[in-house]
Design a protein that fits this description.
CATH architecture of chain B: Orthogonal Bundle
Distance between the termini of chain B: 22 Å
Radius of gyration of chain A: 25 Å
Number of strands of chain A: 22
Strand content of chain B: under 5%
Number of helices of chain A: 17
Helix content of chain B: over 70%
Number of helices of chain B: 14
Largest sheet of chain A: 6 strands, mixed
Distance between the termini of chain A: 45 Å
CATH architecture of the largest domain in chain A: 3-Layer(aba) Sandwich
CATH class of chain B: Mainly Alpha
Radius of gyration of chain B: 20 Å
CATH superfamily of the largest domain in chain A: P-loop containing nucleotide triphosphate hydrolases
Oligomer: heterodimer
Shape of chain A: globular
Strand order of the largest sheet of chain B: 1-4
Structural class of chain B: mainly alpha
Number of strands of chain B: 4
CATH topology of chain B: ABC transporter involved in vitamin B12 uptake, BtuC
Number of domains of chain A: 3
Strand order of the largest sheet of chain A: 6-9-10-3-11-12
CATH topology of the largest domain in chain A: Rossmann fold
Chain lengths: ~500, ~325
């Protein structure tokens, strides 16, 4: 084995990010590393590249035990990494980027001609003939990515880690990068490939290792592996323990009040149609990176629409910015509460009235008595556990922060609320309360779009589930079709018999 | 074509246009006399602007240089008056001092992760204060060696004088170009300006580069102070107020991106010359107030900032198109 990892363990306060993980990378193979959020992929990679120090376990490279303390040391040992965001400098030329730190010199000065020649020769080996004197930033991301790969291989040359290298590439560009990766494999390098795109995993890789909750679930050859098994392993849910769908009251779909026709954005999500009725809960299911959050951001104006339009029963809606979306009566509780949802240093009261105050305009501050009444009201109704409305929100637990974010939107009384992973990182009790709250809201006629990685949760709350895969809406499940099995199957296969392709 | 070089070409074109414009009105302006004076009068500014160019390329700023020039003048004048040392060892001592001063600021900026703006602002007050401590009134420099320095020039055809300090400035620009474009230190400076995080991942020694770049700027400010004292023949604590801002203006007009990572040292020379030319034009005209210099420089600065924003958007747009 080129690279062997044995019982690798990494502990963070409160969690075991990696628990006794074994992994072998052979020379001349592309090895996929898969897992959902929090599975331990990035921790594993950071242990390999020296960004983290492991707590236990061994790593051997070509038979010798290694313990990289920094990215640089890992590079010198032979482990190079290419990230999703190109980690080269767009303001330097291609040649400068490629040769940085290894420039040929004459009389102590960099020899630009020799640098250029060497850069050209290096890139030629990757099938790239470009003007190496141009700024790297003026080339497409695919070419930048290949230059990054070339640099990593030239410096390190044994193991190459590709951390979602294709996330911002189109199909032709992906093919271009894959050709390079294949030729490196044929040269005998060991390549670790991390991606959320299952098609790419099947297309490129020889073996697959799946992590879940910091543990290794399985390592298996890609050939002969079914999508179903793969998804089962990733989500940690065997198919037949079907939880029956309590599809509830809305068995017959309500009349739609909002329509999104052909909305999409290149590189984010393929155009899709969606309509949603008053009091309806629509779920978006799919693996991480399948386009769920992108869909939500598109609907809320965080990313402008490139194609399609939105309308309600009155006429077209303007969704050019979150402000416009809020004016249209939309609300959005984003996935990353800490950075996008709350203002940590402000009090609970201030966080709750934030949206309402913004709508009033800053020239007309809301009377303090009204603020207090509103805050106290929501603290009681949503059962936010706090020492009082003046406590900084950053001190609350995750579940209570989430409730405060919900309170902010409820205070504004939106007609359409988008919830991106509303129950992530929340303890079981608060989890149930939030689900109960969602049910209550829809009874009052609010339309809700919910994104969740937890299939059981999806089955419990959603009247209708849209399944996403590889940045496109691939299936829609309604009424009795909403079941854990069906969702899983749709995530894996897409075209479900009976499912309506969107 | 590389969009990065566009601001440099724009600077050169503007300079040539300005020359042509001046020439149509005052044919005498294109003479070796004017050219020689342009170099001499702007020598101190050119030298300090070279240091500033590297600092700005690295993504920083150095507000202390004007005060350091004043301190240098007073330091030299007082040392020559009170110690009887020859100017040469005094120069060496001064350069050591200002270089170390810059290095100290660079160290603080790097270690404390403080904004360069604040640290060099403190440095500015410190240096200006130190100059006052040495002498409040202006101190004349009467050493005979200074007369030699002031009288050192080569007569160009057309009776223009190519002075020692003018030549020194051109040499410093050459040195700056070699440093920025032909050394690993220079590439590291560009890399830092392009993105610190990425630069570190690529193996740039951030601490060393930051310290060196501010040390270089301090050294250039000291050298500029020497040149300024030769030019004025005295040391005065109130001299060169606002020179740091003029230097920044020259760097930006020279086509360097104020946020760092892109630009050329040669452009800075053109920027300094453009500013000098405007001044010369006003002198030739005679009827216009000298404040017009400031107004034109202000307009030029604005034009360059807009040009750079436009170029940035252009390259981003093309990238988005390519990536889509």
């Amino acid at each position: 084995m080129l690279l062997s990892i044995r019982s690798l363990t990494k502990v963070f306060p409160g969690t075991r990010a990696l628990d006794d993980v074994d992994l072998d990378i052979a020379a001349g193979e592309v090895h996929a590393l898969l897992g959902e959020n929090g599975a331990g992929k990035s921790t594993l990679i950071k242990c390999l590249t020296g960004a983290y120090r492991r707590d236990a376990g061994t790593i051997t490279l070509e038979g010798a035990a290694i313990d990289p303390r920094s990215t640089r040391e890992a590079q010198e040992l032979g482990i190079g990494t290419v990230y999703q965001e190109v980690n080269l400098l767009p303001n330097l030329t291609v040649a400068q980027n490629l040769m940085f730190g290894r420039e040929p010199r004459r009389f102590g000065m960099i020899d630009p001609r020799a640098t250029r020649v060497q850069a050209r020769e290096t890139l030629a080996r990757y099938g790239l003939t470009i003007d190496v004197d141009r700024d790297l930033g003026s080339f497409s991301v695919a070419i930048q990515q290949i230059v990054a790969i070339a640099r990593a291989v030239e410096i390190s040359g044994k193991v190459l880690i590709l951390d979602e290298p294709t996330a911002s590439l189109d199909a032709a560009e992906v093919a271009m990068v894959f050709d390079v990766v294949r030729s490196l494999r044929d040269r005998g390098m060991g390549i670790v490939f991390v991606s959320h795109f299952l098609d790419q995993v099947f297309d490129l890789t020889d073996r697959v290792t799946i992590l879940r909750n910091g543990r290794k679930i399985v390592t298996t050859p890609t050939k002969g592996l079914s999508r179903m098994t793969l998804v089962e392993h990733m989500l940690g849910r065997a198919l037949d323990e079907a939880t029956h769908a309590p599809a509830g009251a809305a068995a017959s779909a309500p009349e739609p009040v909002l329509y999104f026709d052909g909305t999409g954005r290149a590189g984010a999500i393929a155009p899709f149609d969606l309509s949603i009725g008053a009091g309806e809960v629509v779920g978006l299911a799919g693996l991480l990176g399948s386009g769920r959050t992108e869909t939500a951001e598109l609907l809320f104006g965080v990313r402008p629409l490139q194609t399609g339009s939105a309308r309600d029963t009155q006429g077209p809606l303007d969704l050019r910015s979150p402000r416009a979306a809020i004016r249209a009566g939309f609300g959005f509780a984003p996935e990353d509460r800490k950075t996008d949802g709350i203002v940590a240093d402000l009090t609970i009261r201030e966080n709750i009235i934030l949206g309402l105050q913004a709508r009033r305009g800053w020239a007309r501050p809301m009377p303090r008595a009204q603020q207090n009444r509103l805050a106290d009201d929501y603290i009681r109704r949503l059962d936010i556990r706090t020492s009082g409305r003046e406590q900084p929100i950053g001190q609350l637990s995750g579940g209570n922060q989430q409730k405060a974010v919900l309170a902010r939107w409820l205070a504004m009384n939106p007609r359409f609320l988008i919830l991106d992973e509303p129950t992530r990182g929340i303890d079981v009790g608060a989890h149930a309360e939030i689900l109960r709250l969602i049910a209550e809201l829809t009874r009052q006629g609010m339309a809700v779009l919910i994104i969740s990685s937890e299939i059981d949760e999806m089955v419990a709350v959603a009247d209708r589930v849209i399944v996403l895969r590889d940045r496109a809406h691939v299936a829609e499940l309604t009424g009795d079709q909403v079941s854990g099995d069906a969702i899983m199957r749709a995530i894996a296969e897409g075209d479900l018999p009976g499912g309506v392709a969107a | 074509m590389n969009t990065r070089a566009l601001p440099l070409y724009a600077t050169i074109v503007i300079f040539l246009l300005a020359c042509a414009l001046a020439w149509t009105q005052f044919p005498n302006i294109l003479s070796t006399r004017v050219f020689g004076n342009l170099l001499t009068d702007n020598a101190y500014l050119g030298i300090v602007a070279v240091g500033m160019t590297l600092v700005i390329l690295s993504g920083g700023i150095d507000l202390s240089v004007g005060a350091v020039i004043a301190f240098s003048g007073v330091f030299i004048a007082v040392m020559l008056r009170d110690t009887g040392l020859h100017p040469l060892p005094v120069f060496a001592l001064l350069l050591l001092l200002t270089g170390a001063f810059g290095a100290g600021m660079g160290f603080l900026i790097d270690r404390l992760a403080m904004p360069a703006f604040i640290v060099t602002l403190a440095g500015m007050f410190l240096a200006r204060g130190a100059a006052y401590m040495l002498s409040i009134p202006s101190v004349p420099i009467t050493h005979p060696f200074y007369q030699t320095l002031q009288g050192a020039y080569v007569l160009m055809p057309g009776k223009g004088r190519l002075t020692l300090i003018g030549v020194l400035m051109v040499a410093v620009v050459g040195l700056g170009m070699a440093l920025a474009h032909r050394t690993r230190f220079g590439t590291s400076v560009y890399a830092l300006g392009g993105g610190e995080q990425t630069a570190r991942l690529m193996g740039v020694n951030q601490g060393r580069t930051t310290v060196l770049v501010y040390a270089f700027s301090g050294l250039m400010a000291g050298l500029s102070g020497i040149v300024f004292s030769v030019y004025t023949g005295s040391g005065y604590a109130l001299a060169a107020v606002g020179t740091e801002l003029t230097a920044i203006a020259a760097v930006v007009i020279g086509g360097t991106l104020l946020s760092g990572g892109a630009g050329y040292v040669f452009g800075t020379l053109v920027g300094v010359m453009t500013m000098g030319l405007i001044q010369t034009y006003l002198v030739f005209d005679g009827s216009l107030s000298s404040w017009w210099t400031k107004i034109v420089i202000g307009l030029l600065l604005l034009a360059f900032i807009l040009l750079q924003k436009g170029l940035l958007r252009l390259s981003r747009g093309r990238l988005a198109g390519g990536g889509a």
